[in-house]
Amino acid sequence: MKQLLSSRELILSAAIVVMLGLIATRFPGFVAPGNLADVFNDTSPLIILAIGQMIVILTKCIDLSVAANLALTGMVCAMINVAAPGVPVAVIVFVAIALGALLGAFNGILVWKLDIPPIVVTLGTMTIYRGIIFLISDGKWVNSHEMSDAFKAFPRAEALGLPMLSWLAILMVVIFFVLMTRTTLGRAFYAVGGNPHAAVYTGINVGKSQFWAFVFSGALAGLTGYLWVSRYAVAYVDIALGFELDVVAACVIGGIAISGGIGSVGGAVLGALFLGVIKNALPVINVSPFWQMAISGSAIIIAIAVNTRAGRTKGRIILKKAEHAS
Amino acid sequence: MSSTDRFIPDRLQSPLQQRLKSWETLLLAVAIGIFIANSLASPYFLNAWNLSDATFNFTEKAMIAFAMALLIVAGEIDLSVASIIALASTAMGAAAQVDASTLTLVLVGLSVGLACGAFNAVLVCGMGLPSIVVTIGTMSLFRGISYIILGDQAYRGYPTSFAYFGQGYVFWVISFEFVLFAILAVIYGVILHKTNFGRAVYAIGNNATGALFSGIRVNRVKSILFLLTGLMSGVAAVCLTSRLGSTRPSIGLGMELEVVTMVVLGGVNILGGSGTIPGVVIAAFVMGLVTFGLGLLNVPGIVMSIFIGALLIGVIALPRLWQKWRG
Fold it and tell me: How does it sit in the membrane (chain A) (predicted)?
């Protein structure tokens, strides 16, 4: 299994390298280190969100509310900044993570305590969170000139040649790689998704693990909310509208099985980078940005087809005809 | 499950008692309650033309919801319906640019819907992929194609007679869309509740493997359901395009959520296996009345979506909370 996983990541890495190579033949500037760092920085929000989504999908759930959570947390951060420009960025980051985790916990509670299917819960909270942004902001925008300089500067601040946004993505990758591979909670996520019944007999609380998955996903969405709003220096109701689909796409492309139990942080990151390279390459190779939606849709379908076919186990044929019909 | 599920009643409940306790009755009571509350809250509510206008809030969505209900009962889901509307509408718009007749436009809309449904069916039933991810993918793909074709442009210039489907009235305040909605409700009710096909849909939703071994062609039934959902999205696209008179790639954005909400609110189990068409019909009226009533009270659309979202979670959560509290 481990070999299969690593090979899947290898294939994806190879696909990204080939893609970069093809672009480089026509536009060598695209693969210059400086530009690649820019592409990584631009993909950082997607990477952070994909890690959270991966954990949720591992436990047989799905979180469609991440983009709405991001937008709501981002708006709250922006409004705090407008109301009290003196509040240090560290506090705002903390508020963003805490609020995001709270919104995620609300999803988690409904899934854990009331057994409501995750897709229903997060479809519902997706619209509720978006609606709340309108309620608290009155539909108004928070614009660049209303935000304090410190608020806007944080994700751009450079250290060792990379902006803070990139460093945060790298930090999250490291933290969650350790969490998923070196802690009991991380292994519990895999156990819950791999075989919930067996997980119960090993003493793992399935619902509680799913709850924590939603909390992590929410916290990461909250963090991204602040980063998004400060990076683009604007907050309004519709920011990151539909972004949850890109996040799910990144996970599916990264080889995370939608039926749960299979996936890795590395896969999620590569899936996000795959989409990120495409998105950044489109304007360079002179394709209208309107193509992006159809391309990520096709990427989801192709990835799920490849992944499902590779992971399928054949059943025994007892009734030849019945098997034929299926 | 707790041990309380296992006791065997020494007397069956009478059919009347059962009906009184059913989800549909509860929903009907809610609908009547909302109707009364609305008529008290706004003096403009009890007006035949206003009420007729209100039906447009749900007729198009309900048409898709009927097919979606069958699909969800069978244990699958189609999240691409709103994107199918966008693609079908774009195709009709393109046809209208070359002066296609109204009949051609309708045929184009329906066949694009059918083709999209067939595409989903091939991926889900032919290749055995999970419908939720497949239709998230086709949701981007179908609308993506609309964006490629239209970009930031819009199609206009539909023939005058095309406007009938979304703006025409059959008799007095009874719109064409409402008549279509009623006819489709009856057709889908008969299909699900009175035919072998309908029984097969329930059987598949409860136990697909068992259904297969009972001689039901599971994949064929599921494929037909995806085709029907695509076709109904095509029908909705005709009505919506005709009503709006123009096509943008963002047409019907987020409508899949409202369709699924309507189905789940109607008492269809999101995990498959149970649900009724009358339930979905009443749910359509409930959602239509809520949005119309809030609209009369000047509540903005996005705030209404909070209500829809809360309704979706609430109707599932409340019975479960009630059960927990009692046992």
Answer: Multi-pass membrane protein
